[in-house]
Every structure is written in C-alpha cells, then in structure tokens.
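In the previous chapter we treated chains in isolation. Here, by contrast, the input contains two separate entities that must be folded as one system, with a combined length of 680 residues.
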Amino acid sequence: MKKRKIVGCARMLLALGLMLVAGPAPVNAQAKEYRIGAVMELSGPFSSWGAPMRDAIQLAVDNINAAGGIKGVPLKLVVYDGRSKGTEAVLLAKRLVTQDKVVAIIGPGTSPTTMPVIPYVTEAGVPTLSMGSSDRIIEPANERRWLFRPPYGSRHNVEKLIEHFKATGIKKVGFLSVNNAYGDTGREEFEKAARPAGIEVVAWEKFGGTDNDVKPQLTKLRALAPQAIIVWSIPPAASIVQKNRAELAIDIPMYHDNGASLTPQFIELAAGAAEGAYGVVIKVDVLDELPANDPQKATLLKFRQQFESRFGMDVGGLYGEAYDCVLLIAKGLESAGDNKEKLRDAIERVKGFVGMAGIYTMSPTEHNGLSARDLVIGRVKNGKWTIVK
Amino acid sequence: MSEVVQFLLSGIAAGGIYALIAVGFVTVYNVLGIINFAQGEFAMFGALVAASLVARGVPLVAAIPLAIAVTAATGALTERAILRPAAGSSDVVRIIITIGVSIGLRGLALTVWSSKSYALPQFSGGEPVRILGAALALQNFWVLGVAAAIMIALYLLFERTYFGSALRACVMSPNASRLMGISPSVMSLFAYTMSAALGAMAGIVVTPISLATYDMGIMLGLKGFVAAVLGGLVSAPGAVVGGLLLGIIESFAAGFLSSGYRDAIAFALLLAVLGIRPTGLFARMAEQRRV
C-alpha cells in the first residue's frame, strides 16, 4: 500500500516535470520580438464577437510585421480563449504575463469578463486594452492606470442619440434593453442624459439575450405611442427585435445603439426586417458615402479591402475597434520599447491618432480617447447602412 | 388588451418549441428509461446542418430531410458507439453519458460552425397573422403543426401499435422482452435514432424564428426537459401540453413581472412539479409506465 502511494507520487512528479518541459517554450532573450497577448471570447455566450475580433487583431499584427515590425522588431501575438468567463480571463491574463511574458494585453472582449481582470493587471502592471463597453473599466481614472478601453462606450452612443433626437424633435421615447450588464449600462447612461435634454422615456422594457420573441414588450411599448423606440442590445437579439417589429407592423422608428451595427450580422440575420432601422454606426459602415476629405476614409478603404479579401466576410465596426488596439500598442512600442511602464505612458500620450473606429486622443484621465463626433446616425436601406442627414 | 393577446400568442409560440423538444425526451425515456440530455444538441445539430446546406444553395425542401437524416445518423452512431457499450450500467451512468454526448456535440459544432448565428428562411412566405393588434408569425404555425403531427404519430406508435408496445416493453423488462423475441438492443438503436431525428426537426423548424447557434441546444434542452417533466415524461400528448403550458406561463410571467424572470419561472415550475407531483401533471397516464 505504502509502496503504491510512493510510486503514485513519483508518477505525479514526473508528469508535472513533463508538463513544465512541454509547456510554452521559455522566452529567449536573444529572439527579439514584442509579444502581445489577447484574451478573446472564442466560445461561450459572448463568442459571436470573439472570433472576428481575433481575426482583426491578427490582421493588424501581420500588417505591421509585413511593413517591417516596430523599428525592425516583429510583433508576436498570443491568443487565448477566455470562454466568456471572468474567472477564466483572470487565469489567462496571469498566464500571458508570467509565462508568455507579453508587453501588453488586448481584451477581454466584454465588460463582464474585463472587470475581474482589473485587479490582477493593475497589480502586475501590464497595459491592458479591453474591448468592453462599460466606463467602469476605465473609471475612476486614478485606480485604472493600466486599463484602456479603445471601443466606443455607452456614453458616446447616448450622446449621439440625444443629439439626433434634439435635432429631429423627438421628445418621447420608449427604451428596450437586453437584460444583462450591457443593456443595463446603456439604460443607466440614457436615464442620466434624457431628462436634462428634455426627453421623456415612456417605458423601460427589458428582454432576455436568448429570447426569440420580444413581441409582448413591443406591444406594450406601442400602446404608449412613443416617437421612437431605442433598442440596446447586440445581434442576434437586436435582429430578432427588428423581425418582431415587422411582424407586428409597428411603424414607430427604431433606434439601435452601436452594438447592433458592430457586426454585419445584424442586417443579415434580420433577413430583410432590418430595413429602415436606425442605428449609431461607425464610419466603416457608411464608408462609400463619406466625403473624400474625411480623415479616416483612406485608411478605412484599405482596411475594408484587406479584411474582406482575407476573411471573405463583410467588415464591421467591431473589427475596426479591435484592429485599433494593436495600432495603439504599436504606436506606444515605437517610443517605449518593451518597458511596460513606458509603454503605458506612451499609449496615454497618443493624440489625434487616426484609427479605424475614430480619432483617438488619450490623456491621464481619458483612457478611451474617442468622441461621439466620429459616430454617425445611420439607417438601413437596401441591406446597407446609409448616413442619415 | 392587445398586450394580453400577445402574451398568449407568444406563449403558445414558445410552448410549441418546448413541446417539440419534449417529445424527443419522451421517446428516449419510453424505451431506454433514461433522460437524454443531448436532445437539445440534436436540435442544434439539425438546425446548423440545414442552415449550412441552404447557405450553399440547396433548396429548403431538400435541405430539411437531408439535415434530419444526417442528425439521425449521428444519433444512431452515438447510440452504437457510446450508449450501447454501457447498456448494462445504471441509469445514472447512462444519463451522465448523454450529458457527455451533449458536450461533445456542442464542442464539435463550435469547431465546425464557430460561434456565429445562422438563419433559415421561413417555410412559407406571407404576412404574419394579426389578431387584435397582436401578431403570430406564420413560422409559429409550422412549429405548432409539426409538434401536433409528431404528437399524434408518437401517440399512435406507442399506444396503438404492436411495435410501440415492443418498444415500451424494453424498458419495463429487458429480459422478458428478450424472451418474447424483442431485441432491446435494436429497439434502443431505433428509439435513439428517432429521437435524434425528432430533435433535428425541432431545431430546423424553430430556426427561422430563433436563429441557430452552436449553443442553442442548452436552453432548448432544459426547457424541453421541464416541459417533458410537466407532462409526466412518458406520454407524447402530455409533453406537448406540458410545453404549451410552460410557454404560456413563462410568457405571462415575463409580461406582467419582468422578462428577467422568464427562465427562473421555468425552473421554479420544474422544482415545484418534482416536489409536489413528481409523476407530472397528468399522473394517470404516467402510471401506466411505472413498474
């Protein structure tokens, strides 16, 4: 009995040893490359965002390497699947820092998976560019020194929508949000901004992210006769709302936050029912209509062509936002090298940088860098987003 | 008023979906004596295969039987390769095997189809039916129609045919069945294959409404299970009534309380039924099978 135990222990030790040997190759100080880590939701409930984001990040890294890297030093991307779980994301972030020795982390891709990672990356001192949408990722600024959040947030969307409602005389709206942190953040932001802008919200309705029928909520909203219905969610839920609206033949205009248009799936999945939908969109979605003097147009045209030819799928705003994460890190690496502290400072100093999602101007108190100015109110016409003038 | 009508219609629509999954549970339970937790995954698998075929230009009428056949074959393979070798094991072991099958299928689907959502066109074009300001899409009638057809077919099969009695005899007493010349092994293969085909039908017919994703099977399976338990687990008509009931209760709860409670209601209902009336709401029918 005792002997068996000892043999068992020895086996375990051996296995452990093998694991260490077979694990990620130790970082070789000679092989000069900048390692960038990414924790993306490649499976689980948030995964419809993860895979294309990973593709966009890979494209950005490949482009930079093809152009000679950062002053001759190539980038190396290490991607892990966070499985849409916060706990998993923390473990992977630790692995990226301790084993893969990355200089910066891109991701996690959502707010709920980013929040648990914050204490660790702050303690470890790794610049982390989250793809979430909540402002809590980067606020309060003094506690979030190491966190950046390049994508647009709820605040930008609300600002753009309210500006549009004011301009078009819409004063009475209904609000329909997906029942999770994403929808709740949108709702909170809109609630804060609506009253000062003189906009009355007749009802706050919610629906489940996996519901396939939102007609009860829509019937309720219709009965209250608002001038517009705001929908705060992402596809496929956003597409289902559009389908249900068509089934009920509701003619109240429907406005989606930027989450709907971030991937081409919204229009695709609604199968014609998205026609006439309004939404806050990123410029890449209305690229052909942009004036030639738009500062983003040239880079976006190139990005769209590259993305679509390489991945055989339509580009969406989300991919641009993910691409920007790499560009921001690359920009920082140019002046900072692989010193993480300097890299953080360098990203914080980015000013007027033209990215795919918009123009970034960071500061110690502004770790998002975008402004609602670069967003557009769009409307779906013939299966494509067009600019609402 | 139109709200209440809409709650009811939406409830019936959702209930039809649950019923379709529930009849699959009943089929397997009637013959193998276990809960097949891969039922939702068969629905997902059928739906994704059909969506891929249609996306590749296969007409819908051909894609549907093809997808059902592929799923049924997957079911048959699963039964032979994974469940059959464990035939002598306890029910708990075999139920856990079906959970393993569900996880395996989900993983396979994730690698093949990634995490994207896929759509299928409605089976028949046309305006939704509108009653008192509420609406029900035509596809929902397809769901209800398919559920009704399957329910009748299964009822006739299990209760009115010799073959159906043979199927049910297998779970009651495998040894006695064998003595009577019924092969429990063949019957179990047949039942599992059929439940995979039923699952595929369910998945395909709901996809135009709910879209298809690799993880759609989890919720479908759970809700279908609740519906099957409400109906007493052994009767196809019970499962359909259980499904409709669940859909309607959920819809009204979501409408009058908050949509956040939708899933909680379903599972509270499951706990209540298991606690108070473990034989389901239609206990008399269930007693026929209790041995």
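Confidence is low (pLDDT under 50) at residues 16-30 of chain A. Residues 130 and 149 of chain A are 5 Å apart (CA to CA). Compare these points with the single-chain example from earlier in the chapter.
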